[in-house]
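Changelog note: in this version the structure field was regenerated for every chain. One regenerated record is shown below for reference.
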Amino acid sequence: MIAIDTNVLVRFLVNDDAEQFTRAKALVNENAIFVPTTVLLESEWVLRDVYGFTKSRIMEALGRFLDLDAVTAENAGAARNALAWAGKGMDFADALHLACANPCRAFASFDLKLARRAVKVGATTVVAP
């Protein structure tokens, strides 16, 4: 199994550099791939902030990537929940934080917007510290 960095995942998804896309595609096609949670988080940011992708396009692209047979996410359940919650209006980073905190009884934050959106999607309870 080979873990990939954000730049490999983004090249695979965006195909804006033919040589690097070819190498990333070969890596994914020829190996079992591990995607750290931090790579998912950073990839969403890069696709949104650098490439200007819409949230729905990003969630779809990351979801399709995670569906590949050779791909394993560090915390697949949390990644799937975060993608789904982000698709329902949450910020992806917030959704991923909450999804990774799932075994906890609550998530402490001063962000009231996060708390309201967490309730709407049925995520972990958000409480003010």
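Spot check on this record: The longest helix spans residues 37-50. Residues 2-74 form one domain.
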